[in-house]
Design a protein that fits this description.
The complex is a heterodimer of chains A (151) and B (316). With 151 residues, chain A is mainly β. In chain A, 7% of the residues lie in helices and 34% in strands. Chain A folds into 2 domains: 13-94, Alpha-Beta Plaits; 100-149, Aspartate carbamoyltransferase regulatory subunit, C-terminal domain (SH3 type barrels, Roll). The longest helix of chain A is centred in the N-terminal third of the chain and has 7 residues, at 24-30. Helix content of chain B is 41%, strand content 14%. The longest helix of chain B is centred in the last third of the chain and has 19 residues, at 293-311. The chains are: A mainly beta (151), B alpha/beta (316). At the A-B interface, loops of A face α5 of B.
Chain lengths: 151, 316
Amino acid sequence: MKKELKIPLIRDGTVIDHITAGNAVKVLHILGIPKSTSSVVSVAMNVRSKFGKKDIVKVENREIDPQEVDKIALIAPKATINIIRDYKVAKKHKVELPNEIIGIVRCSNPTCVSNANEPVKSRFKVINKDPPRIKCYYCEREPEDIADRII
Amino acid sequence: MLVFLILMKFKGKDIISIKDFTKDEINYILDYAEEMIAYAKGEKYRDILKGKVLSSLFFEPSTRTRLSFESSMNRLGGKVIGFSDPSGTSQKKGESLSDTIRMADSYSDAIVIRHPHEGAARLAAEFANVPVLNAGDGAGRHPTQCLLDLFTIRKEKKRIKNKKVVLLGDLKYGRTVHSLAYALALYGANLTFVSPANLKMPNEVVGECKDLGIEPISTSNLEKAIRDADVLYVTRIQRERFPDAEEYNRVVGSYKVNYELLKNAKDNLIVMHPLPRVTEIDPEIDRTNHALYFKQAFNGVPVRMALLSLVMGGRK
C-alpha cells in the first residue's frame, strides 16, 4: 500500500513534532500563531507514530527560535523542533522548559494577586521539567492542571 | 565575618516569606531581637531610626501585627504614616495596589503591608524601591509572625531542635501554620499535626517538612498528641478564609483547650496562639503557667524592631 503524507513536506520553515496528542492548538496559542505569522501553518492531530498518537505543526518560511518554543514543553514535554532548509533538517532541538514561565499560564488560585487587576504578568518558577511542575512566583501555589490554565 | 556579611544582606531587603532566609539569617534576627527586649518594654530608649518614616498599609483588619509594627517604629525613634482601613483611601476609587505602593514608596523609607490577596507583598516589592515587609497576605505568608513564634519557642525552651511541637486547628487555611511548620522543620523540631479531617495540613507543606528531614505525624487524637509535647500551638478556625459557610459551621468548635485536656500534659508544656482566639482556648488556661500567648504577642515587638532596624540600616 502506498504511504501518503498527512501534511506535505515543507521547503523552508519549522516543524514541531511529537506534540502530545490533542495539544497542537494549545501549542499554536502559546506561540501566538496565527497572530505572530502570516505564513502557511499546517496542523496534524492524532497522527500515529511508533510511540503512540502525536500532533505535528508545520510553519512555512519561518524559523522559530528554539528558545521561544521551549515554553511549549509545559504541555508537550516530548516535542522536537526541526528547522527545515531546502527540504532538509538543518537543525533539531528537543524542547526544554526554561526556569521561569511568564505570561503563559494563569494562576489557579483565585485570590492570587496575579489574578487581580494589577499591571503584572503571571509568573511561575519551574520546579520540575518532566513532568512539568510549576509554582506561582506570587502566591507559591502549584497548579495541577497546567494545560487548562494556559492563558 | 559571617555576621558582617549577614548584616550587609539585610539593608534594603524585603521580608516576604520565611523561605527567603537561611537558618543563619533567622538566628541573626532572633539574636538581635533578644537585644531589643529592654527597648521594646520601654526600659531603655534608642533612636536608631530617627528621621525614618514607615508606611503602614493595612488593607485587612489587624490588632497585634499593626500595633506592634507601629510600636516598634516609635520605640526606635521613627515615624509611622498609613491606614488601617482602606475605605478611606484611593483604593475605594479603584486605584490598583501597585499605584498605592508607588505612592507609599515615595513617601517613606519602608513599607509594611497586609492585604487579602496572596502574593500581594511580593508584588509590592516589585514596585517599591524601599524594603517591603509582609504583614500577612491573604491565606499566604506571614513571616514576621513566624519569626516571633520561633523567637518565643527558642526563648522558652532554649532550643528548637528535637522539641515536640503540636500544631492544632485549621491547618489548611491558617496562614501562620504553613510557614511555621516549614521553619520548625528547618530547625529539626518533631512535628505533630492535629486538625479536623477537612482542615488537614496541605500535602505540599508535609512534603516540605520531609524534604528537610522531618516526618510529621498527623492525627486526630489531641489528648494523646499533647501527652509528651513541649509546645502546643493552637490556631483559630478563620471564618473569613472559608469558601462557604457550611464548611465553616461543620468544624467550628470542634476542639477546645481547657484544664481537662491539659491534665496529662507535661508541666512545662507551653500553649501558644497567634491570636485572636475565639473559643479554642478556655480563658481558665490564661492563669496557668501553660499560657504563653500574651507573652508571644509581646515578642512581636522586639522581633519587628530588629527587622525594621535591619532593613532600614539602623544597625551599624
